[in-house]
Amino acid sequence: MEIQTLEQEAWQVVDKLEAAGYEAYLVGGCVRDQQLQRPIYDYDITTSALPDEVIALFPHTVPTGIKHGTVKVIMEQGEYEVTTFRIDGEYIDGRRPASVHFVRSLVEDLARRDFTINAMAMSRHGRLHDPFDGLRDLEQRIICAVGDPVKRFEEDALRILRGIRFAAQLGFTLEERTHAAIVYEAQELGKIARERVREEWHKMLLTAPDVALDLLRQTETLRYVITRPPTFDLAVYDPWGYGIDPWQLAGTWAARAPVDLALRYAIVLRAIQLEEARIDKVMSDLKLSGALKSEIRRTLRVVQLGPPTEWRDRSWRQYFYQHGRDAVRRACLLYAILHDEGRLEAWEAEVEQRAAAQPLWSLQDLVVTGSDLIEAGLPEGPEIGRANQWLAQWVLDHPECNTREALLQKLSERIE
User: Fold this and answer.
1) Element spanning 173, H or E
2) Which residues form the Poly A polymerase head domain (predicted)?
3) From CA 262, how far away is CA 292, in angstroms rounded?
4) Which helix (H) or strand (E) holds 334?
5) Each residue of 259-315: pLDDT tens digit?
6) N or C: which end of the chain has fewer CB within 10 A?
7) Weakest mean pLDDT among 53-67, 201-215, 317-331
C-alpha cells in the first residue's frame, strides 16, 4: 500500500467533513512525523462533527470508541480514526476518562493531549495549529508534557513510558519538569495493566533499546517494566569484567542486533545474567505470548551449549534438528555481538551455509514412513516411534544416508 495514497485519502476525509460545514484537521503523530520528515503509516483526524454526524457522512464506519467520540472511517485504501473535539472528565482508572464532553474548540481538544509534539493539528490548506509550541520542542529535540506534567501522568500513567519511548525513538531529551514528574509519578505504573506496559517496552526494544534502558534507569521506572530488576555493585561483582553496568551492556548489545524481538530479549536477559526461573517469571509477568516465550527459551538454550566457534559439524546438525534454525541463528548472532566484534554478516552466512546442508529438520524429513518400518518387521506401536528417533540420529551422524535404501538397510541390521 502506497503511503502517499493513505495521505491523499486522509485529506479526502477532511474535505468531506469540511464540505458538510465542520472543522477537520489531521492531528497528533502524523503531524509530528510530517514535521520530522519521517514515514507516516497512520493518519488521525480531529473534527467539530459529533460522532453521529460522522457516521451519517460516511458509508462505511465502525464505532470503535464512540463513547469517547471516536469513529473509524473505512475508505478504499485505509482506515482513519475520526474523533470529535473533546475535553476529558476525571480519570478514575488511570487510563480513560470517566466521561468526555464534546466541544467546538480545537485548542481545547489539543490541550488534553499528552506531549506538545503530539498536540499539533494541520489544516487542509497547510496551516499548522500549534498552541503549545510543539514545533519549537521538535526543533529543540525535547519531550515536554502539555500543561502540568504531574496531572498528565496522573490521568494515564502509561504516558510515562510513552514519553520515555518517544525520547528514545526520536533521540530527544526529556524536558526538566517532565523528567521530574516521571520520577515523582513512577509508582503509578504499578497500576497499569501489564499488557499495556509490555507494548511500550516492546516498542522501545525494537527501536532504541540502549537509550530506552538508560532512561528507564535514570527515571527509576525500570522496575515497573522488569519485575525486581537485578542491580550490580561492580566493586563486588562484575559479571562481564568490563567495569560497565550489565544494564548498560544490555542496551548497547541489543541496539547492535537486527530488529528481532526474540533476539533482543535474549540479549538483554543474557547480559543481566538472570537464572532460568527468573527469566520465566519476567516473561510470564509481561504476559508474553507462548510463541515468543518459546523462541526466547530456545535461543537461550542454544547459547548455553557453548560458543559456536567450538561446535563440530555433528553439533550444528543436532542443534538445528533439536532447536530449529531460528534459535541457532539467533544464538550465533548473540555470540557475534557479545564476543566476536559484531561479525553479524559472517555468522549469518555461516548459518545459511550450514542450514543449506542440513539433512534433517524433523522426523517428517525421514524418507521412510511408518508403513515402511512395519513392512520391515517392526510391530505397530511405540517401537515405530523409537525406530524413527534412532534413524534420525543416525542420519544426523551420516547426513548423506537419508535414502530409503540406506535407512531400511540400517534398520534391518539393527533388527537382526
Assistant:
1) strand 173-174
2) 24-143
3) 6
4) helix 325-339
5) 999 999 999 999 999 888 999 999 999 999 999 999 999 999 999 999 999 999 999
6) C
7) 53-67
